[in-house]
Amino acid sequence: MQELKLDKIDKKLLSYIFHNFRTPITQIAKKRRISREQAEYRIKKYEKSGLIDKYLAGINLHALGYDKNYIIKLRVKNPQIKKLAEINNLKNILIFTRIFCYGQWDYMISIFTKDKKNILELISYLYELWKHELLDYEILEPIETHYFPLKIFGKIEHDKTLSYTESKPIILDDLDKKILYILAKNANIKIVELAHKVKSKIETINYRLKRIEKNMILGYRIFLNLDVIGYNLTLMNIKMNNLSKLFQNKLLVYAKQRDRVHAFSLNIGKFNTMFQIIYKHPEELKREINKIKETFAENLIEYELVDIEKELGPKMLPDVF
Questions:
Q1: DSSP reduced 3-state for 286
Q2: How far, in Å, are 27, 90, 152 from residue 3 at the CA level?
Q3: Rounded distance, CA 11 to CA 181, Å?
């Protein structure tokens, strides 16, 4: 794949639309100090090249009763990305992300479920899927996960962090559910098209969408195909000997401030901390790892690195909810 070259305008534009793509194009162009035509042309270029893979709505799954989140790491005899694509939702289990990786683990999947007992059903399903090829697995339970703005291209004007944490259930009517379901498929859909799909007035959809964004949508972000611009992702899973409130805050502040940290989570399991590192050259990854080790030297017991080769587009919502 030929790498897409980005200039300064591209980087500033991508950093802004990463979380703000639903902003009217005239406002996007004004923010980046370019013409509307130029903004439209460049965004279409990102879509055509495959850099923009999907427009995502971060839906508050906890509020839908899917309040149990688990990450399952798998090692198999013959890892194939097409086999990973065969992992589908089960009843009351949302397969949120599916990741093809290399190193100690071959696959990672992140799931949301209504009941922790469902995890046994999923493990049974995975054994049936791989039969005798499933060699080992490990389960982590994220307590909170934070997805940060696209910081690699420079200064971010506003904090648009998407945080998955515990919240109370929310009751939705049928129209709310229809709107959410459509946004889960394509969060960049225009209001006019959304109104047409749900057979409702534009004024009604505007009102409902504002209410849904306040109560059910944690934020928006673009799912990027980083291969197109030559970037990579690696997870640094860490076992820390301290998870006091003060230390948790120190970890989160560090993650927010570092340009190369793309996401962060606190977990229950062998590794209770995770930093997702985005980088272009191996030297950048090495520097970030060393900085983490240096900053948390007194608390870091052990760590593992999981290199991500391909992440299949996230599924933001269960088929039935």
A1: helix
A2: 29, 37, 17
A3: 31
